[in-house]
Request: fold
Amino acid sequence: MKYFDIKGFFKSDSARLTRLNQPIYKVIKHNGVSESKIVHITNWGSELSLFSEADINKPAWKDSYKVTADSNIIIYQALSPELKTREILIKLVAGKVKYMMILDSTKNILYNSLEKLSYFPDSLYLIQKAQTVRLLGTNKYDISGYFNHR
Reply:
């Protein structure tokens, strides 16, 4: 694989979270109105699917991202404006993911969508989405899941 295996990482981490079997504190905010509750996630693969879908290891995209890397940080930046996943930043400590941030953007004549996905394997995932649909306006969503909510 040319790029970091995001799909494989989230498959493995979903299995880890399933094994831990702990409830999370989840906050959902839609256009400024928030709701929070403690929930038990039974399907972590589905819960984290937006992250997995940002996997850029597709043969057609093998030269589609600029890669900047050192021993602790890997940054992928899209070279073409048509690519949905615009940027990925991965922070590593001792070879393990400590933080991942993914920026996705979709623009067409009907709508614009911007997603910022942040993942801290030991504590939190955050999905921030703003979508503007012609004639309907803008919707903003924030979904936060806190793993260690005690």
